[in-house]
Request: fold
Amino acid sequence: MLALSIRQPYAEFILRGIKTIEYRSRGTRIIGQRFHLYAAGK
Reply:
């Protein structure tokens, strides 16, 4: 399964539904698929 790495506190905001959009400098191909969310530290 695919994984997406996001730093804290943004990972928690996404899981709580506070942050609904993630902008990235590099595109991702994980659109419309299930994936793991990896909460990286600072």
In short: The beta strands are 3-7, 36-40.
